[in-house]
Design goal:
The structure is a single chain. This protein is α/β, with parallel strands linked by helices. It has 7 helices and 12 strands. A 5-stranded parallel β-sheet has the order 2-1-3-6-12, with helices on both faces. The longest helix is centred in the first third of the chain and has 17 residues. It starts with a helix and ends with a strand. Bound molecules: D-4-phosphoerythronic acid. This is Ribose-5-phosphate isomerase.
């Protein structure tokens, strides 16, 4: 119960702090924490949200927006040169530079597209997600969205890059075979040694290529995204990280 209370408090605080009445385009992430973000937005009342459109990051996010009676719009319809005013989303782990591991809900590809389309990206997470370095609290590995036919090759390359026991995410009961994302892809979860910040002075910060050496978030991300068959990776960058894309989609705040 403490976790749910923490998620809800974080969500209501994030909406209070970052959803301005004049905003018209709002990204909505995926997972269980963002449920409370939508609850907080809906609680503002119809008049407050009537001029706002809400952009989903997958099937669950779309259902959340519709069920709350909010105006649903799609990132594929965002006019050229326009950005979302703000995007809210959860995370599986947040380090103290606001680098994120995302993808626990297998929605990371659309989540990153929406996040990268927003002027501000607000990460909403409960206390369990906070860790000094990525990979210390979240042990399941970095979620990576891959083309199914390339999965065996990607697993090989991840092993070579030092991942310990990367594996294709299995389906849940009732679904034989691998999880299939909203985009028809598979997810590989790739555990690595805890990732350093670019600023860490430790000697192993060269990127740990090929060994279990500890790499930096940026250096590892650079390698992962280049593996043939990888569609997107569940690493989002914080204050001092790389720009993921043109937008200022680096997380501006994380609430716990
Ligand atoms: O898939 C994701 O990145 C989601 O944001 C998710 O991992 C966060 O999930 P939670 O809010 O249910 O912990």
């Amino acid at each position: 119960q403490l976790v749910e209370t923490s998620k809800r408090l974080a969500a209501f605080q994030a909406v209070k702090d970052y959803l301005r009445p004049e905003y018209t385009r709002v990204g909505i992430g995926s997972g269980s924490t963002v449920v409370y973000v939508v609850e907080a937005i809906a609680a503002l009342g119809h008049d407050a949200t009537a001029n706002m459109s809400f952009y989903p990051t997958g099937a669950q996010s779309e259902e959340l927006i519709e069920a709350a009676g909010l105006n649903l719009q799609y990132i594929s319809k965002l006019p050229a040169g326009k950005q979302l005013d703000v995007a809210f989303d959860g995370a599986d782990e947040v380090d103290d530079d606001l680098n994120l591991i995302k993808g626990g809900g297998a929605c990371l590809w659309q989540e990153k597209i929406v996040a990268a389309s927003a002027k501000q990206f607000v990460c909403v997470a409960d206390f369990r997600k906070l860790a000094p370095r990525l990979g210390t609290a979240w042990k399941k590995g970095i979620p990576i969205e891959v083309l199914p036919m390339a999965a065996p090759r990607v697993l090989d390359e991840l092993q070579r890059l030092g991942s310990q026991n990367p594996r294709i995410r299995p389906g849940l009961p009732g679904k034989a075979g691998a999880i299939v994302t909203d985009n028809g892809m598979w997810i590989i979860d790739a555990p690595f040694a805890p990732l350093l910040h670019a600023k860490d002075s430790e000697s192993s910060a060269e990127g740990g290529s090929g060994s279990n050496g500890r790499g930096t978030v940026d250096a590892l991300a650079d390698r992962l995204i280049k593996i043939p068959g990888v569609a997107e990776i569940g690493l989002f960058f914080g204050k001092n990280g790389l720009e993921v894309a043109s937008g200022a989609q680096k997380p501006v705040a994380a609430y716990f």
